[in-house]
């Protein structure tokens, strides 16, 4: 056992410290032995001490040891009155436990000057000596503590007192310590506890405030293992059946390393009240109220909004420095992931003093939680839902915008999945079905690029008109359904669907003539063609925070590699790829005098409202001419886009069929496009692509779907 330090040893420490500090004793004033005051002594009461240091030496020695985190050194300077009820081990452990929990650093402990000193509770001022009720001489002192902690900086002024103690004719002023020295207000039995206040995740709403991702109260069903009794197998089987899980999944949760027999083990969120009521009636099953994420549009907005889930090991590795911990929820896909930092907020954390009864007494340090921001999107829930109903059975990508303002009204990918299943606890079987579905419901198609096919012909026409390479009124004679430039093309050729002559721009758009636009691209030439495409933003990402793939004119970011590829690019084949949203913005130039406004997806993009992303992607005259031709392409009974025609409306639109095949003459997948808007009232522009339209009418399968969406929008339903 460690031998307690004697008063004599403490006095030596004090005298040495006083010698090293020299005149610092003036902080407490000069003091002389007071013959009238009794002294605590283990020697003769009548003997005069051989040395009479003032109080400052003991105080400064103690404060210096404290600043060095020398807890044993601090204990050595405590008075016998303290030590008789407090062992060194207890003292050291108390400081270590509290300071370690707070992660204390940069500790500074200083004595306050005499003019800032306050009298102690017994009336002992800093300029003289008082006598306690036990007849012991004491002096008060004040000190200041500053430190950094994990919960933030801490600073306080406090008072203490020293007691005059004599042993073997040696006088020492030793510290009359109590728990309030650690933090003001602390008493015996109090502890310091770290309390965390989670931030409330920000919600996501549409342009009208309709919920897209919100926090709702739900019943978290769980099991208390030691209350299952003999019914364990029956209870787990019943829970598995009602919650769409397997017994093995429940056993895995019950077998987690942290689980103890008396603890509530979360199993799944109850889908409805009836399921909750039925299950909590079983032995060992309980429910707790929790806040969970809810996605009201479900499948209709799954890829856009995404979902949250518990952070995994890989995510934790990259996010730990940002304050994430095991068990935290994090955005997994969609906007929940893209806006994770803004939606998450900052959790609050405080160090608080707790009394014996567990009652919170005061806050030592900390910060309040800062809730995540609520994001208001430009998305229109009604448009989003209407489009989903049209394409939910297809493999499709759709973007809808307000072309004059750049506001994105809808973004969809189909087939889809229910993100709420991940909140409730998706079963292995359900996840397997989705993951193994050959149509890939987890694939976000609207964020990917596709060959735009004939939808690109509008861009080729605009480049040709503005470069002077295309005369819209020139009637060309094109013989047959196939064409190639010359013998240098070998067996390669361009094919068109309709043999019609002569062909001008309006007829070429109406009948979607591939040969006409292949010849136009060659007439434009590679360099002007690449420069013209760049005016539409092709080759660069859309200026939105959402991770869309960047469009391209050719693989590698350059232009077409030769005449064949340039010709194919003219009608949206070759290596041209665009997202449906980028195609929509390219067409928006037709209603903005040739300009493309900045895309907007949320209020955060409002700073770009009214600004132009691409000025004069095409001239105003070119925009007017092409728009009129696209109205005719839909209105004409033989036009490729006639399936979108609405009586009384001026629908302007362009179909497109992109063929994906290994070589000429072979059959491959066909993706159908339709891009359109009401030229008389351009409030809604839709860009729709549906995969595998071969055998279903090609792009003719797509146009009627867009027509029905326009009809709903016109009727207000």
From TrEMBL:
The keyword Membrane applies. The keyword Membrane applies. Residues 58-190 form the NTF2-like N-terminal transpeptidase domain. Pfam families: MecA_N (PF05223), PBP_dimer (PF03717), Transpeptidase (PF00905). It is found in: Membrane. InterPro entries: Beta-lactam/transpept, Beta-lactam/transpept-like, MecA_N, NTF2-like_dom_sf, PBP_dimer, PBP_dimer_sf, PCN-bd_Tpept. Its main location: membrane. Residues 31-56 are annotated as: Disordered. Residues 35-56 have a biased composition (Low complexity). Residues 197-360 form the Penicillin-binding protein dimerisation domain. Residues 397-711 form the Penicillin-binding protein transpeptidase domain. Belongs to the transpeptidase family. This is Penicillin-binding transpeptidase domain-containing protein.
